[in-house]
Amino acid sequence: MKHHSIHPFEPFRSAWKHRSLIWQMCKREVIGRYRGSILGLAWSFFNPILMLLVYTFVFSVVFKARWGVGEDNSKVQFAIVLFVGLIVHSLFAECINRAPGLILSNANYVKTVVFPLEILPLVALSSALFHTLVSFAVLLVAIFVLNFFIPWTAVFVPLVMFPLFVMTVGVAWFLAATGVFIRDISQITGIITTVMLFLA
Questions:
Q1: Is 82 exposed, middle or buried (0-12, 13-18, 19+ CB in 10 A)?
Q2: Which is more confidently placed, 38 or 135?
Q3: With the C-alpha atoms ordered 33, 37, 41, 43, is the resulting torsion angle positive or negative?
Q4: pLDDT of 112 higher than 70
Q5: What is the phi/psi pair of residue 150, to 5°?
Q6: Fewer beta carbons within 10 Å, N or C terminal of the chain?
């Protein structure tokens, strides 16, 4: 019997090969999320703005949390730092929470032999990444309003985030495959990501 070995980079090669399909599915997913709402895609911009305002109010007024010592705007800075952490966590949590049900919720694709199932986690990541980019744009505007400049080190954000992207896709692949056989995984991941949020 002949055994076929799978190269470790094969999923990434498949992703590059099917990049146009990933783009189309991601676009459909992002647009579909807001279909039927009055503001439509504009909600992707309003959500992070509203959340930033809520964080600023809660931690500046209610909890009176501060970032640093002796800074007049340290309370607002704390909300900004918290918002940065939540952007990163939201990207990871959205992909991980969706991963166990990716194959199950796309059963019609499973029946299609030629469909590359390995791209489903990449579609989920791309969709989450869209919202992350919008939140990051809101973050840059908030930093500029507060400090009247944007740190040049912001250009390194993609480099810093790249390991997170790779790890998230790897975990999502594992959970997507495991979720087919163990349905409880989807319940467990939700609890784990919530615990991670509060521990962080």
A1: middle
A2: 135
A3: negative
A4: no
A5: -115, 125
A6: N
Helices (H), 66-156: 74-98, 107-110, 120-147
Q: What is the pLDDT of residues 34-66, one digit of tens each?
A: 776 666 677 777 888 888 788 777 776 776 666
102 in Cβ contact with 120 (< 8 Å):
yes
Which tokens in the block code for residue 159? 């480099």
The span from the CA of 123 to the CA of 28, in Å, is 10
The share of the chain scoring above pLDDT 90, in percent, equals 15
Q: Does the pLDDT value for residue 73 go beyond 60? A: no
Structure tokens at 53: 């305002």
CA-to-CA dists, residue 168 to 62, 72, 90, 105, 149, angstroms:
34, 38, 12, 19, 32
How many CB atoms within 10 Å of residue 73?
15
Q: Which amino acid is at 29?
A: E
Predicted pLDDT of residue 64: 67
Task: Render 2-41 in DSSP notation, one character per residue.
Answer: PPPPPPTTHHHHHHHHTHHHHHHHHHHHHHHHTTTSSSGG
CA pair distance 139, 81, nearest whole angstrom: 10
